[in-house]
Amino acid sequence: MHLYSYLSFNKLSDILFATFLSRHPEVKWAQRPDKIYITVQLPDAKDAKVNMEPDGIFTFSATAGAGNSTYELKMDLYDKVNKEASKINVGVRSIFCVVEKAEKGWWKKLLRGDGKAPHYVKVDWDKWVDEDDDGTPS
């Protein structure tokens, strides 16, 4: 019985340790009435994989750094997106995504649900445009 308890604890700690080893890259976002800009800040990312689902699920994974650390991200975007019209560009310093909204309109925030966004998700003030300054004629 003590051996079983020890093995159970080790499996749990292995899962927690593996979760701890998976890091979240910094994410910056901005929007326009018809699209969302998402920039994943991860210099020298290798094997970058980005996936978007029409229901707004956005996933990212890559390795980076001297130790080839794993970086993963799963975000439930505020609303539905047009996967086919969206674009992804993997650069040397970051991964830039232009996510087309399924319906035009301003989102209150990037992520669905209550509460604050995770600490690694920030507004991209360099790309941000206020709703009343979107450049469209009134």
TrEMBL record:
It comes from the Eukaryota. Keywords: Chaperone, Cytoplasm, Nucleus. It is found in: Cytoplasm; Nucleus. GO terms for cellular component: cytosol; nucleus; protein folding chaperone complex. Pfam families: CS (PF04969). PROSITE patterns: CS. One of its GO terms (biological process) is protein folding. Coiled coil: none annotated. Residues 22-111 form the CS domain. GO terms for molecular function: Hsp90 protein binding; protein-folding chaperone binding. Its main location: cytoplasm. InterPro entries: CS_dom (IPR007052), HSP20-like_chaperone (IPR008978), p23-like (IPR045250). PANTHER family: CO-CHAPERONE PROTEIN P23, TELOMERASE-BINDING PROTEIN P23 HSP90 CO-CHAPERONE. Acts as a co-chaperone for HSP90. Belongs to the p23/wos2 family. Interacts with HSP90 in an ATP-dependent manner. This is Co-chaperone protein p23.
